[in-house]
Each structure stands twice: as structure tokens, then as C-alpha cells.
Write a structure and sequence with these properties.
heterodimer; A: 679 residues; mainly alpha; B: mainly alpha; elongated
């Protein structure tokens, strides 16, 4: 327990309520082999998550009444790991950063739970499916809440792995289709690669702190001990001599990079982003909750949580910023040519996560958190909107089979448009403010090599984002209907459980930017300290170190609006004005088009360079050679064959069935023993 | 007093007689009797040593052996009777089914 921190026993119930719901579902399905009624499932699961959301609001209220700088609530449950002087508590902490995260997780989570009621209703593939789905969804909510509330790295890692597991379970939710199961495994295995580096990072933190006499993994202790050890260096081995700064690296840089590789896996950054587009095999609410709004932002949260470490490791921060910017651009260009509605959104998620890392790497941790929040709203809205379209089209996801849907899905169309405007940075929608914050941060980040190039990449990506999002919108809702007449006749807006979350998210997508209104607009409106999110997070994440003059900031915002307008104009020109032009353009630039259509052949490259050699190695050497040949063949079957051969061909004839021959052999044996003893 | 050597010699002679009888004879009753002979040869040796060392534990052993031998004879004869009823034979070579 830390001095000055206030105990709040309410905190534990925020993660435990969803866990309890998941446990009840799990026991019923797994042990009792029974299913709840549909109403029971809804009451239990949605009730638990909504109760969590209410509790989150309550503890937020407890938090904000505390004076700034002392906003910390603690709920220690028990000592989870105690070994010698090291101990890791099962302890939750709520500071402003965690508060923002739990509000996003439980708030957006509640809406998506409600949405799932309607979305999963038409799933008749499996009579237990409805309850199983909500079981996993609750388990995910629990894991995510542990991740953001845990007060030490170990608890964060528990949540980190828990959400990975739930992601796997939900991507492969319709596992009867082998492709879905394959996508689930792909996500899980790619994440393992990142998690390996993440674990190494945790070990390095522990090793460093233990060496300095603080064997602990609690964030507050790491932060307190950090200045003393931040300057320590490690010597890299010779074969890493090509790295900048080798052979002597600061430990903070090494730790930061290791942890960031983990974040690359979880948050789908280059080069580990490949699992996220395939994760769209899961049901659409899962894509919205896990693979857009919450889980994939865990890496951003981790970087912000350890912002004191990254602030002291400029090398690691530069890597983060550049990885983020390149990922943003890379994924956005792929999204240009994709036709699957969910694939476009998936690449756009990868791209937006890149923005968040760009912001965090440039030191704009509050900007990254701001974009995390607004992205959760508008990306959840877009995914849920696409889910409404998919429902209306009877699980058709290809936009080349859509078009003209605005007549049939009037509300969905408007709500989707709100999401498109928000993500593209239409002025005064939420995404406009948060993306601008990141771009301004990158523009002013003098400590990052090439920060102007980062800004340019970010701005260019903004234009591409506007282009592909409007392309998606136009192809889905406008133009001539390409679906069959029969499908079009039955297409309609889904019912209320699906539509209400959309309305709520659309509202948040429009006004969500208010919480982080940059001061430059605040001054215009005469609002003091308008960026309440930054002020709220400031004590944890530090205030932005660099100030850009207001006139310059407005100019940058002008550029961003220009990028938006450019993207919109090109999309309008290509997909509304001259619908035959994209085809001709694709033929004229067939090389570039094929490159983008095939996603830069990254999957094929990984397949040829890593997956196939690994499978061949496993199959030919490890399985056939070592396992079947050496262990089973020589080690297990070998002695067995030798014994069988010897015993069955020779030794068995000793057993004659005549008691007297046994007696005689015993006599010989006794004589031999006695003879040996008296020799 | 009879010297220990003579007691042991008699015991050894009785034991070998019993052993040879148990190995070479085919009649099960004779084999059983030969086993009893071996047991009593051992008893004799135990008593002889007990006297020579002036310790009582050897004689206690003998009582144990006699008790166990009595039980063993009861069980053995029971098996033999059962066998004779089933097989009409007392020949050990007729009960060699339990083999490879």
C-alpha cells in the first residue's frame, strides 16, 4: 500500500462481475451441459458489463473529487506471487489513465454486448452458440479490465494473455469452418512472437530492478526506482554490432524496445500486423470490440502506462514513432483496393493504431490516448454499421455485391456516414481533433529524427484514409445496386438492439472530441483549460513538452482539412462521378494495383520465408526425425522390441509348467548364490 | 551333550534327502512330505544353533516354523484333494498347464 493512496473496495468488482458471468456460463456449458434461456444469457452477460460500466462511473467520480496529483485509488486483494523478497500483488489501481481505459472498455463494451443480442440472434449454426459467445465476450471484458487496472507488469501480462486467448476463441467462434479456425490460430501464434519479446522485456525490468535492490514489478515502484537505474547500460553481443549506438545500449532503450515488440504483436504494427485483417473471420461484434476498440489498443495503453520509461529512452521512442507512421501509411495503401467491407475496416484499424503509436512515440501520450478513445467510438460505430449491412445482405461482405443500399438502410447509411466523417477527420468530429493532436505532436517532436517526415507521412495517410473510407461508403451505399433483386427487396435496417448502440456510438463519434478540445479552439470559444482530457491525464502522462504557436496549429489543422477534402474529392470523382474510371485506372496501373490488391504479398512472403520452412522443419526433422524416429522409434519401441524378441524367442521356454523344474532351477540358483558367498 | 557338528550333519542329511525327494519324485503327496522333511531339517539346525549359542530366539523360530508348516500342510492337502477330485491323478506331470 502506498502512502496517500485511497483504498476503494469497489474497484475489484469492475473486473470480477464480468468474470462471474463468464464463470457461470462456463460451468453451465462445460460441466452441467445445459444452456440458459436466451433471456437469462442476456440478463447475466449484459447486466454484468453494464454494472461494470456503472461502477466505473462511480469510481471515476471518487477519483475526480480528489485533488489533482493525488488521484489514485487502490484495491489490494492478496499477494499473488511471493518468492523471497519479490512479491506481486493481485492489486488493482485506478489513476486517470486507467480510468479513461475502463470507461472505454466498459462503455463501448456494454454497447457492443447489447448489439450482439441482435446480431447473434440469427445464428443457428449451434444451439449453444448464443451462450458460448457471451461467455467468451464476458471473459474478454474481464481480461481487458485486469489489463488496464492491474498495478504491476505481471497482472498486466495476465490480462494481456487473457485477451489474446479470448481473441483466439472468438475469431474461431464458427470453428466448423476450417478457415476461421486457421485465422484464430494465426492470430494466436503471431501474438506469441510479440509476447516472447514482451516477456523478455518484463524479465529485463525485473533483472534491472532486482539488481538495484528493488525486486518488484509494480508500476509505481518501477517509476520510483527508475531514475536511479535509467542510466544503466548493457553491452550488446558482437553480432548486433550493426545497430546504431552499439555496442553499449542504455537499458531503458532495450527494455522499451522489447516491450514494444510485444505491443507490435498485440496492436498489429509492422511487421506483426498480419493477423488482424484475418481476425475479421470472427463475428462482427467481436471485430468491433476486440479487434478495433479495445484489445488492439492494449499496446498503446502499455506504452502510455510506461511513458516515464519511454520518455527516458529516445531511441525506443523514435522506433515507435517511425513504426507507427510507416504502419499507418502501409495499411492505408492496402485499404485502397480491398473490397471486403470488414477487411477495409481492419486495415484502417491497423492504420489508426499506427497513428496512436506515432503520437506516443513523439511524446504525445495524451494525444495517443485521446485518439485511442475517439477511435474506439468511431471504429466501433463503423464495424457495427458494417455488421448491420452484413445482416441486411445475408452475410455478404463484398462491397462489389452492394451499392445503392442507402434507400434500404436509411438509418444505417447516415450512422455509417458519421463514422466515415469522424475517421476521415471532418472538422469538429471527434477524429478531427484527435488526429490533429497527433499530427501537431509529430510536427513539433524535435527529439525524433525526421519528425517533419513523420508529419508528412501522417498528413498523407490522412488523405488516403479519407479516400478509402469514402470509397467504402460510396461503394456500399451509393451507385447502382449490384446485389440480386431478391436480396435488395428484403434488405432493411436491423431492429433496435442493433440500432440503439449505433445511435449511441454515432453521438459519441460526433461530440467525443469535446473532452480533448485543443486549447487553440478553447481560446476562440472563451473556454479556459479546454483540453480536459489532457489536464486529467497530465499528472500521469506528463504534459506535452512542446508548444506550437496557435497560428501554426491552426495552419496545420488547415492542412489536415485539406487532406480530408482531397481524399473526399478523389473518392467522389472516382466512385460517384465516373464509376468506370477505377477499373480503367486499375488496368493502367496494373502492377501497382496488383501489389496493393495482394497486400504487398506480405502474407506470401511470410509464408515462404517463415511458415513453410518452419512447417517443413517441424514435419521432417522434429516430427518424423526426432519425435517419431528418435523418441518413439529408438527410445520407446527399441527397448520394447528388444525385450519382446529375446523373451518370446528364448526365455519363454524356461516356463515349462512343471513345478519340479522350477524347484530344480531354484536349487541351482541357491547353489550359485551360496557358492558365490563362500568363494 | 551332542556336539553341534553332529546335529548340523544330521540336519544337512535330512535336508538333502527332502530336497532330492521333492525334485525327483512325481507323486504330489511324496513331494509334500519331502517339503515337510526339509522344514524339519531346518528346525533341527535352528535348535542346534540355539543351544550352541545359548540363545532362545532359535527355539522361538522353530515354533513359528511348526505353526506355519501345519497351516501349509492343511492348505496343501486341501489343494491335493481338490486336484484329485478333478483330475483323478496325483502325478505332478499331469498339472503342467500353466506354461508358455
Amino acid at each position: 500500500m502506498v502512502d496517500g493512496a485511497i483504498a476503494s473496495p469497489l474497484l475489484r468488482w469492475i473486473p470480477l462481475l464480468p468474470l462471474a458471468a463468464a464463470a457461470i456460463h462456463g460451468v453451465m456449458l462445460g460441466l452441467l451441459r445445459r444452456t440458459l434461456t436466451r433471456g437469462g444469457v442476456i440478463a447475466l452477460s449484459c447486466g454484468a458489463v453494464i454494472a461494470s460500466f456503472v461502477l466505473s462511473c462511480v469510481v471515476l467520480g471518487q477519483l475526480v473529487v480528489l485533488p489533482e496529483g493525488q488521484r489514485l485509488l487502490i484495491d489490494s486483494l492478496y499477494t499473488w506471487v511471493g518468492a523471497g523478497r519479490f512479491s506481486a500483488e493481485a492489486s488493482f489501481q485506478l489513476d486517470p489513465l486507467s480510468a479513461v481505459m475502463i470507461l472505454v472498455v466498459t462503455g463501448v463494451g456494454s454497447l457492443i454486448h447489447v448489439y450482439s443480442i441482435g446480431y447473434m440472434d440469427d445464428d443457428h449454426r449451434d444451439d449453444k452458440g448464443f451462450q458460448r459467445f457471451f461467455c467468451y465476450l464476458n471473459l474478454f471484458t474481464f481480461s481487458m479490465l485486469v489489463l488496464v487496472l492491474g498495478d504491476n507488469l505481471l497482472l498486466l501480462f495476465l490480462g494481456w494473455e487473457g485477451v489474446g486467448l479470448c481473441s483466439y476463441l472468438l475469431i474461431g467462434f464458427w470453428y466448423a469452418d476450417r478457415w476461421n479456425a486457421y485465422c484464430g490460430m494465426k492470430a494466436f501464434i503471431v501474438n506469441r512472437i510479440g509476447d516472447f519479446a514482451f516477456l523478455v522485456g518484463i524479465f529485463l525490468v525485473f533483472w534491472t530492478l532486482a539488481g538495484a535492490g528493488h525486486p518488484t514489478l509494480a508500476f509505481r515502484d518501477i517509476q520510483a526506482a527508475f531514475p536511479a537505474i535509467g542510466e544503466k547500460t548493457v553491452t550488446l553481443p558482437d553480432w548486433l554490432g550493426f545497430l546504431p549506438g552499439a555496442p553499449s545500449w542504455r537499458l531503458a532503450t532495450l527494455i522499451g524496445l522489447c516491450l514494444f515488440v510485444g505491443a507490435c504483436g498485440k496492436s498489429a504494427q509492422l511487421p506483426l500486423y498480419v493477423w488482424l485483417p484475418d481476425a475479421m473471420a470472427g463475428p462482427t461484434p467481436v471485430s468491433a470490440l476486440i479487434h478495433a476498440a479495445t484489445m488492439v489498443t492494449a499496446g498503446v495503453y502499455m506504452v502510455c502506462r510506461l511513458s516515464f520509461l519511454y520518455a527516458a529512452a529516445p531511441g525506443a521512442s523514435a522506433v515507435i514513432a517511425w513504426t507507427g507512421a510507416l504502419t499507418a501509411l502501409f495499411a492505408a495503401t492496402i485499404a485502397i483496393t480491398q473490397t471486403d467491407i470488414k477487411k477495409v475496416l481492419a486495415y484502417s484499424t491497423v492504420s489508426q493504431l499506427g497513428y496512436m503509436f506515432l503520437g506516443a512515440g513523439c511524446g504525445g501520450y495524451t494525444a495517443a490516448m485521446f485518439h485511442l478513445g475517439t477511435h474506439a467510438f468511431f471504429k466501433a460505430l463503423l464495424f457495427l454499421g458494417s455488421g448491420a449491412v452484413i445482416l441486411a445482405m445475408h452475410h455478404e461482405q463484398d462491397t462489389s455485391q452492394m451499392g445503392g443500399l442507402w434507400r434500404k438502410l436509411r438509418f444505417t447509411h447516415w450512422l455509417f456516414l458519421v463514422g466515415v466523417l469522424a475517421i476521415s477527420g471532418f472538422p469538429f468530429f471527434s477524429g478531427f481533433f484527435s488526429k490533429d493532436e497527433i499530427l501537431v505532436t509529430a510536427y513539433a517532436a524535435k527529439q525524433i529524427p525526421g519528425h517533419r517526415a513523420l508529419y508528412a507521412i501522417g498528413l498523407g495517410t490522412a488523405a488516403i484514409t479519407a479516400f478509402y473510407m469514402f470509397r467504402l461508403h460510396f461503394r456500399t451505399f451509393y451507385g447502382m445496386p449490384r446485389a440480386s433483386r431478391e436480396v435488395m427487396a428484403h434488405a432493411h435496417d436491423p431492429d433496435n438492439t442493433v440500432m440503439v448502440p449505433l445511435w449511441a456510438l454515432a453521438f459519441l463519434s460526433i461530440v467525443g472530441g469535446i473532452v480533448g478540445l485543443p486549447q487553440v479552439y478553447g481560446d476562440m470559444l472563451g473556454v479556459k483549460d479546454s483540453n480536459s482530457l489532457a489536464n486529467f491525464l497530465g499528472p500521469v502522462l506528463g504534459h506535452a513538452a512542446h508548444e506550437v504557436p496557435h497560428a501554426r496549429e491552426l495552419g496545420l489543422a488547415g492542412f489536415a482539412v485539406g487532406a480530408f477534402a482531397l481524399g473526399l474529392a478523389v473518392a467522389w470523382l472516382l466512385y460517384l462521378r465516373n464509376p468506370e474510371l477505377p477499373v480503367r485506372l486499375g488496368q493502367a496501373l496494373s502492377g501497382a494495383y496488383r501489389l496493393l490488391w495482394n497486400k504487398y504479398y506480405v502474407d506470401e512472403l511470410y509464408d515462404a520465408a517463415i511458415v513453410r520452412p518452419l512447417v517443413a522443419l517441424s514435419d521432417l526433422v522434429l516430427y518424423r526425425g526426432v519425435d517419431a524416429g528418435l523418441i518413439d522409434g529408438v527410445g520407446v519401441n527399441g527397448p520394447a522390441r528388444a525385450v519382446v524378441g529375446f523373451a518370446s524367442r528364448g526365455l519363454k521356454y524356461v516356463q515349462t509348467g512343471l513345478a519340479q523344474s522350477y524347484l530344480f532351477l531354484m536349487l541351482l540358483g541357491a547353489i550359485a548364490v551360496v557358492g558365490w558367498m563362500v568363494r | 551333550m551332542i556336539p553341534l557338528e553332529q546335529v548340523i550333519a544330521l540336519s544337512a542329511a535330512l535336508f538333502v534327502i527332502g530336497l532330492v525327494g521333492a525334485v525327483v519324485r512325481r507323486n504330489l503327496i511324496v513331494i509334500l512330505m519331502s517339503i515337510e522333511l526339509m522344514l524339519n531339517a531346518v528346525n533341527l539346525a535352528l535348535v542346534g544353533f540355539s543351544r550352541a549359542h545359548a540363545q532362545q530366539s532359535g527355539q522361538i523360530f522353530v515354533f513359528m516354523v511348526i505353526a506355519v508348516a501345519a497351516a501349509e500342510v492343511a492348505v496343501g492337502l486341501g489343494i491335493l484333494i481338490s486336484l484329485f477330485r478333478n483330475r483323478d491323478s496325483m502325478n505332478v506331470e499331469d498339472v503342467s498347464l500353466l506354461k508358455w
